[in-house]
Specification:
about 150 residues; mainly beta; OB fold (Dihydrolipoamide Acetyltransferase, E2P); 2 domains; 5-stranded antiparallel β-sheet; 3-stranded antiparallel β-sheet; 1 helix; 8 strands; globular
Length: about 150
């Protein structure tokens, strides 16, 4: 992908120094959404932790999920939050609820016209936006309304 949803120049995401979320970032590079699931209580969780949020088991592993969900909330951002976005104009940030994963929620951008109407509960699918033209390539998970 040569065009990106947001202007270039933003800080690059990277796994934390302890490596806890490294499987998530590698999964995105491989076009997989990997999220933690506890093998003791079978519940999903986000963000990554060393133990289960619910039962406190340390038997948590990353598993693949279909990158689809519903819009739980959104924000149409008009003011630049970083110098690279000075000329960006509006963009949409969504909080997506993954119903097949105990309702955990992930933040991302909603692709398309930043002035499009956004309806809470709309179904969305993930889009993997690869950034290969940098020293440390990375991939972002963006969202697109189903049917668009």
């Amino acid at each position: 992908m040569t065009g990106y949803y947001l202007n270039p120049g933003l800080p690059q995401p990277a796994a934390t120094s302890d490596g806890l979320d490294a499987p998530y970032w590698q999964g995105l590079r491989d076009e997989l959404l990997l999220v933690q699931r506890c093998h003791s209580c079978q519940k999903w969780q986000w963000g990554p932790e060393w133990i289960c949020h619910r039962c406190r088991s340390d038997n948590v592993e990353f598993e693949s999920l279909e990158p689809r969900g519903t819009i739980y909330s959104f924000e149409r951002v008009w003011h630049p939050v970083h110098p690279a976005l000075k000329e960006q104009g509006a963009y949409l940030v969504v909080l997506v609820e993954l119903l097949q994963a105990d309702g955990i929620r992930l933040v991302g951008n909603l692709l398309g016209d930043p002035n499009q109407p956004v309806i809470i509960g709309s179904e969305v699918s993930g889009v993997f936006e690869h950034h290969n033209d940098v020293d440390n390539p990375f991939t972002l998970l963006q969202w697109r309304l189903n049917g668009n």
